[in-house]
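SAMPLE LOG
Freezer: B-3
Tube label: C17
Construct: single chain, 195 aa
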Amino acid sequence: MTGPRETVRSGYSYLTTDPDLEKSIGFREVDPDRDLGRLHAWLNSDHVLPYWEQDDPLLQVRETINERAQNEDQTLYIGYLDHTPMSYWESYWAARDRIGDYYDADPADQGIHLLIGPREYLGEGYGAPLVRAMVDFQFQHPETERIVTEPDIRNERAIRVFEKCGFEAAHEVDLPDKTGLLMFCDRDRFEEGGT
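STRUCTURE (predicted):
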């Protein structure tokens, strides 16, 4: 893998080593100024566009990221593999998100949105370890007992990754910008090893 390595160990909100990959996985909060270029490039990638549909010009991406970063109901992260930035994550309080209208949401439920940025990380088996790391990070909040996600129904790869991490499909949901598959991961199931 090629890509810029960053010395951000002290800036991680969460850092672990995946025993199967034998690589570190870390998440640090997005800095809209520092991360704008990479997020613009990632959002405009051919493998991301069908699901995120945010092929906006740089200034629009700046506004979108700034708006999301200021939303107290979610936290944005850059995900790292061996200290190389390669993914974008949105961790949010599901009951205060639009998805909370589609099920009986508990106030402590958390949700996940994510994308893998550089194409060379696709199909390499990184998806499940990354999702497991984020879910473990979210379950560090003691009141959270359930994580929710709603991948695009067409995104079979993402659905399989979530299933490997202990998520179970509930039902399809018609959202304003997509048809999603509502999926849940309970703390007990996750801690028992998921699948």
